[in-house]
Amino acid sequence: MNWSNLFKIALKAIANNKLRTFLTMLGIIIGVASVITMLAIGQGSKQSIQSQISKMGSNMIMIMPGAERRGGVRMGSSDMQTLKISDYNTLKEECTYLSAISPSVSSGGQFIFGGNNYSSSISGVSQDYLKIRQLEVEDGEMFDDTDIAQSAKVCVIGKTIADNLFTAGENPVGQIIRFKNMPFTVIGVLKSKGYNTMGQDQDDVVLAPFTTVMKRILSVNYLSMIYASAITEGQTQEAINEISDILRTNHKLQDGKADNFNVRSQEELSSMMTSTTTSMTILLACVAGISLIVGGIGIMNIMYVSVTERTKEIGLRMSVGARGLDILTQFLIEAVMISITGGLIGVLLGVGAAYGVKFFAGWPIAIQPMSVILSFAVCSITGIFFGWYPAKKAANLDPIEAIRYE
Amino acid sequence: MSQEKKVVIDLQNIRRDFIVGEETVRALRGVSFKIYEGEFVTIMGKSGSGKSTLLNTLGCLDTPTSGEYYLDGVSVRKMSKNERAILRNRKIGFVFQSYNLLAKTTAIENVELPLMYNTKYNSKQRREAAIQALQMVGLGNRLEHKSNQMSGGQMQRVAIARALVNNPAVILADEATGNLDTRTSFEILVLFQKLWKDGKTIIFVTHNPDIAQYSQRNIFLADGKVKDDTVNNHILSAEEGLAALPKNEED
Ligand SMILES: Nc1ncnc2c1ncn2[C@@H]1O[C@H](COP(=O)(O)OP(=O)(O)O)[C@@H](O)[C@H]1O
Ligand SMILES: [Mg+2]
């Protein structure tokens, strides 16, 4: 076997048939590029959904009164009243894994301003609530410690409330709205967050100091819930354990006695996140699979046809003394060169197209090294195989059969 | 013909059946003959009589269904595919009716082709041998012409040069003048006669009985069998035939 001659022969064959070479390469280029671009777009939207979910606060922790009861067992009223302000104060001082903590009590009812009324509920919280739920005051300001200490009749309202009460376009800040006959001064308006992925209107909120809601509206000494935020998502479990320990001590629960409270991380969110991520991953795998199959079939066809078309050439080469192995080596060299070059161009084009989509359409993209490697490998191997296989078939013929092939 | 001459080809009862659907086409039905070194043989017969099948067998391009074939004393039947490829490469020069040159390839590259598969030649020797072969067929000034830039006669000359370049034991030509006009056919015949005088062994297949007069021995095929095998004692000179042609015929 004379490698340098076979290399020369292969190079000459490629150079003598620039159009055929280009078309074959085009199949590979498009195969590789489309897989990379599709996956970059798919992966980009997956990551952007993930980041949206984590923006909603996946490190949020909820502390609820009562033992965890599953299976529809009703909680007695004493069970519902186990969380006190003292619990909140202790947790706020002693917890090391929390970045924010806020009590929560709420009461439903009508808000009235002038002739407008709107049914919603008022949430008694502390300032940290904004951080935990990733809310921002857009206009005016949040209430402060003084307001909490004085149980001040002030509130911060969401966009939906503002739109429904202040229909004449008044600036809500400084206006007085009534809730259960109690006047509240609007001191701030929250930045709109729109609907969350579960379809809830996140702007349908009214926030007031928790002391005001507890004392002036509900006249209770217990909290319906405590919201907290772990410093990072990864520390959520440590935070939950710490909270449980502190609350057990606070509630003087002896070993072996069940908790009379319930600490959970944002379960709906996390389960939603995993389910979204899983379906997205499945979708992506399908997209990748289909693109690879389509690309692969394209490459297979064009390679197969272009080599089969050269059966006569193969016969001629054999008639002047080329051995089967010489033919196979020549076509393998050609297929490898075309496939690898096409694959590399495809990678460049795919990456370029992905950035083009990002630049012109503004879609999020994420180019995965794995998808680059996978598409390159699959397309090259397909190209090489289907460049080699018909050549092998032709090389097995008697030279005269190959020469006569039409 | 003198008996002490070396036997180049020895065919013994060669048969070749083609299976076409349900039917079996018996293209060769037991062909036997010997061809000696330095002979110029024409194989004649009607279309379909099995001439091409016979020549393809001689050229190791096709495998007979049965029978023995000795080329230069070696049994081709017992050879592996690779050994037969090497045989085609070193001992046989084949000229096709339809030239079968590589497309978009220069004359010299076409002629170099057999030597590309022969490791004994380096690129310099290859080029020298190709130039020599092209000069022998009168194309010394057309080395870099591409196959699609040449006339039929020139393409056939390139094909003949390709068949000569490996200095084969035998040159096989299948209707080598079949696609050419009279004048060009004569020119090709002149070439074959010159090669024969240089000592080459030539087997020339044709359905044109006129051509037989320019060779030394005529084998007639009919229905896949040798019907006649005669020696031609009055070999005409192709050069004289060419000179006798009216000048204004196709040019
Ligand atoms: N590849 C083939 N398959 C089937 N039949 C063939 C094949 N090649 C030749 N034949 C048949 O064999 C017979 C001899 O053909 P061929 O050798 O080409 O004749 P010639 O060259 O004398 O015209 C014909 O009947 C032809 O149809
Ligand atoms: Mg024929």
Summarize the structure.
The complex is a heterodimer of chains A (406) and B (251). Chain A has 406 residues and is an alpha+beta fold.
How would you portray this structure in words?
The complex is a heterodimer of chains A (406) and B (251). Chain A has 13 helices and ten strands. Chain A has 406 residues and is α+β, with helices and mostly antiparallel strands. Chain A has two domains: 3-52 and 272-403, no CATH class; 83-259, no CATH class. In chain A, strands 2-3-8-5-7-6 form a six-stranded mixed barrel. In chain A, helix 3 (85-94) crosses helix 8 (236-250). Chain A is elongated and about 105 Å long. Chain A starts with a helix and ends with a helix. Chain B is α/β, with parallel strands linked by helices and 251 residues long. Chain B has eight helices and ten strands. At the A-B interface, helix 1, helix 10, helix 11 and helix 13 of A face helix 2 and helix 3 of B. Adenosine-5'-diphosphate binds at residues 18, 20, 25, 27, 45, 47-53 of chain B.
H/I helix tally of chain A: 13
* Distance, first to last CA of chain A: 29 Å
Trace the largest sheet of chain A across and list its strands.
2-3-8-5-7-6
What is the chains' assembly state? Answer: heterodimer
β-strand amount of chain A: 15-25%
Tally of DSSP β-strands of chain A: 10
Query: C-alpha Rg of chain B, in Å?
Result: 18 Å
Mean pLDDT of chain A: 86
- Overall tally of domains of chain B: 1
Domains of chain A (count): 2
How is the topology of this model organized?
The complex is a heterodimer of chains A (406) and B (251).
Chain A: H1 3-16, H2 18-55, E1 60-65, H3 85-94, E2 98-113, E3 116-125, H4 128-132, E4 137-140, H5 145-149, E5 154-157, H6 159-165, E6 176-179, E7 182-190, E8 206-209, H7 210-218, E9 225-230, H8 236-250, E10 261-265, H9 267-308, H10 311-319, H11 324-361, H12 369-395, H13 399-404
Parallel strand pairs in A: 3-8, 5-7
Antiparallel strand pairs in A: 1-9, 1-10, 2-3, 2-6, 2-9, 4-7, 5-8, 6-7
Chain B: E1 7-20, E2 23-36, E3 40-44, H1 51-58, E4 66-71, E5 74-75, H2 81-91, E6 92-95, H3 107-116, H4 123-136, H5 152-164, E7 170-174, H6 182-197, E8 202-206, H7 209-212, E9 217-222, E10 225-231, H8 238-244
Parallel strand pairs in B: 3-8, 3-9, 6-7, 7-8
Antiparallel strand pairs in B: 1-2, 1-4, 4-5, 9-10
Helix pairs in contact in B: 3-4, 3-5, 4-5, 6-8
Bound molecules: adenosine-5'-diphosphate and magnesium ion.
Magnesium ion binds next to helix 1 of chain B.
